[in-house]
Structures are given as C-alpha cells and as structure tokens.
Write a structure and sequence with these properties.
Blueprint (H helix, E strand, L loop, with lengths): L2 E4 L2 H7 L5 H14 L3 E4 L2 H22 L2
Parallel strand pairs: 1-2
Helix pairs in contact: 1-2, 1-3
Length: 67
C-alpha cells in the first residue's frame, strides 16, 4: 500500500534552487527514493506559493541582467 506524502512549498523551491545545491540534491534523492512507495500530494496554496517565489526569482534575474 502506498502512503501519501505531502510536499510543502519549501521542498519545491529547494528543488528549483540555483544557489542551494545541497538542498536541491537532498530533495532529488528523497523524491527518487520514495517515488515507488509513496504518492506525493500538495495543495493549491503550495502551488501558488511556489509560483510566486519562482516568478520573483525570474524577475530578479532579468532585472539584474539589464542594469
């Protein structure tokens, strides 16, 4: 029987992080190790938070490149 594992926003943000390489690797390993025996779940709020953070990061990348 598979178990549900809730993935919070900080986990997704670490996965897409450019400057937190160690944390990104830990998240990747956790997801790889648990893919078969777990079902990953999240919430609409988590998706919104991750989108907001990633949008800010992209905006910062483009604004710092144009100065």
């Amino acid at each position: 029987m598979t178990e549900k594992v809730f993935i919070d926003s900080n986990v997704w943000v670490y996965l897409f992080s450019d400057n937190e390489h160690h944390k990104a690797k830990v998240v990747e390993q956790f997801l790889d190790d648990n893919t078969v025996k777990s079902v990953f779940v999240t919430s609409c709020q988590v998706v919104n938070e991750v989108c907001h953070v990633l949008k800010l990061r992209i905006r910062n990348i483009f604004s710092s490149g144009s100065t």
